[in-house]
Amino acid sequence: MTKWKPARLGLHAPRTRTGVSWQVVIAAAVVVVAVGWVAIDWLLEQAAAAKDPGSARVDAIKTGLGVGAGTTGIFALLLAIRRQNHHERTAADATHDATERRVTELYTKAVEQLGSAKAPVRLGGLYALERLGETQKSQRSTIVNVICAYLRMRYALPAEPAAGAPAEHHDRYEDRMQEAQVRFTAQRILRRHRQPLTRPNLFWAGVTIDLSEADLRTMDFASVDFELANLSGAKLAGANLIEADLRGANCAGTDLSEADLTDARVSSATHLDVPSAYEERDGRLVPK
Length: 288
Fold this sequence. Notes:
By secondary structure, the protein is an all-alpha fold. 50% of the residues lie in helices and 3% in strands.
């Protein structure tokens, strides 16, 4: 079967014309001639009244030609400025496209690592995604979506095989325990960047959390912002949700058995069946 490879974005800097059209050249020449002609004509009129008309006419013509040459210099300066601006824009476009290509390559490589059969490689992919999100704000929403999708994949903690079980059973158990560590790492990355009160400098705002049906048992989500998150059907049994923000979150069918919900924030829009051990007071859950 052909191995799936993420498509790469074809980013190319737009090509722009650097030359000056002939219409502009003709217009500039007309302006230069007109300015020089007007200057010479006016100076010749002034020279007619001079004491030495012959010498004054020569000086008038020289001065008029100088005005025309000055006008030509102005057009040359404007053309040089235009070319400089064009070169700067081209360089900026090239730098932007190179950055976009680099970001795409890093993202693609990290996602490919998540599909590896080896747990250490998958761990490297998660940390690569986190590092990319720290430097590229525009990629954070996509990165969080990828991590949430990974956590939504079906998984259950394995039972330790008996001492006399075949070697492949022990190998399978070890692989699944390593996968558990990968998933714990993914959960810790989400927690690290979704705690606006305790870690405001690391908080990733404006991202959507969809952990529906995810197995998140015994996880530490204290002070995590789950506002408007989709947690429907998630397994959060025994999880630490102290001071978690659940306002507007969809918690329909969420397993919260033995979860610590002390001071968790809720609202009228929270789809949550409050556990019997808690009651709502001023928008927070407190133990009875």
